[in-house]
Amino acid sequence: PAAPIITIDGPSASGKTSVARLVAQRLGIPYISSGLLYRAVALMCLLENVTAEEIEHRLGKYRLELHPTPEANRVLLNGKDVTESLHNLEVDAVVSAVAKRPGVRAYVNAVLRELPGPFVIDGRDMGSTVFPEAKYKFYLTASPEVRASRRVPERDAAYETVLAEILRRDQADATQSAPAKDALLLDTSHLDLDGVVQAVLGHLTERA
Ligand code: C5P
């Protein structure tokens, strides 16, 4: 198929980024993690020591770029690579408030819509809002407990802390996280990463 966009949405720690990366590798196309851009705006708040509401009015100070490479996405803020500063509990704590601001969503979506296809992209509202025309849409789910145990090794924090953070973020993200009506829902609670990737690839083959 010509330059398809494949969207993979789901709640935090549902495995969507790992799945998107592996599916993209198998197809030989870039993957994009849209959450990185919200994380970059959260980092702006931490750097400037301002609230989500205040950063909405300072977005013009920042040039945000996302560069997909075969292994990972690099995020540049005013030309500086900040990728390594985007996954920690400090950013986790402010990112949902940032992502609620309409001005922030418009800013991030404008960056995303400039990216040339084809690609596999993960997020919350990629299939429902940002790329409604995408040819293939998936929505991954898993219980909060399963998601917490998957995330503990990435956060260097106790299971209870990570579970609480996931439950809090589920609530905070609920409004922008409804699955697209035409998305395929995949419950990954009882699948390992490879199982989810196989399910996605199988569906793509069936629908091609
Ligand atoms: O996917 P990830 O956990 O990195 O996303 C971080 C945060 O960014 C989410 O908790 C959510 O608040 C926000 N987000 C969003 N819409 C997206 C992607 C992420 O609101 N498409």
Q: Name the CATH class of the largest domain.
A: Alpha Beta
- Low-pLDDT stretches: none
CATH homology superfamily name of the largest domain: P-loop containing nucleotide triphosphate hydrolases
CATH architecture of the largest domain: 3-Layer(aba) Sandwich
Structural class: alpha/beta
CA gyration radius, whole angstroms: 16 Å
Question: What does this 3D model show about the protein?
Answer:
- The protein is of the alpha/beta class and 208 residues long.
- It folds into two domains: 1-30 and 119-208, P-loop containing nucleotide triphosphate hydrolases (Rossmann fold, 3-Layer(aba) Sandwich), CATH 3.40.50; 33-116, P-loop containing nucleotide triphosphate hydrolases (Rossmann fold).
- The chain is 49% helix and 17% strand.
- The model has no long low-confidence stretch (mean pLDDT 93).
- Cytidine-5'-monophosphate is lined by residues 12, 34-35, 38-39, 95-96, 99, 123-126, 169, 173, 176.
Secondary-structure map:
Elements: E1 5-9, H1 16-27, E2 31-33, H2 35-48, H3 52-56, E3 64-68, E4 73-77, E5 80-81, H4 89-100, H5 102-113, E6 119-123, H6 126-130, E7 136-141, H7 144-155, H8 159-173, E8 184-187, H9 193-207
Parallel strand pairs: 1-6, 1-7, 2-6, 7-8
Antiparallel strand pairs: 3-4, 4-5
Helix pairs in contact: 1-9, 2-4, 4-8, 7-8
The structure holds cytidine-5'-monophosphate.
Key attributes of the depicted protein:
single chain; 208 residues; alpha/beta; Rossmann fold; 2 domains; five-stranded parallel beta sheet; three-stranded antiparallel beta sheet; 9 helices; globular; binds cytidine-5'-monophosphate; CMP kinase activity; ATP binding; transferase; nucleotide-binding; kinase
